[in-house]
Specification:
The chain has about 130 residues and is mostly helical. It has 3 helices and no strands. α2 runs antiparallel to α3.
Length: about 130
Amino acid sequence: MAMGWLAVLQMVPWSYVIRNAPKVADGAKKLWNTVGKKPPPVPPADTGTSVQLSPEGRAIAALQAHVLALDSATHELHEQMLASSELIKALAEQNTQLIRRAEVNRVRLLLLAGVTTVVAVVAAVALTLVLTR
């Protein structure tokens, strides 16, 4: 199971991901700033009229009801768009933090490999010196 994840992680082009992480975060911030500044559409007002209307009046009332329903749907979509853009912003920030941590771990791993190589060389030299005496 771990080998599958390891294979997937090795296939990720990390240099490309690290290089583009700031662009993703900036794009999410721009999206949030654009969407967050727009005023939400005015929610529809309820017009409950129970007066007998002429056929033209009923048609107009039906059209007004349809417009109110569309306004309500637009308001709901705007709220969903705000929530989605906030989520995208949060995910982009988390992605940036993850990339930073992965880069720190990569540097630490390289440092550890270097130290391990030096220790191995010193151990090999010491072993050679002990065996030649």
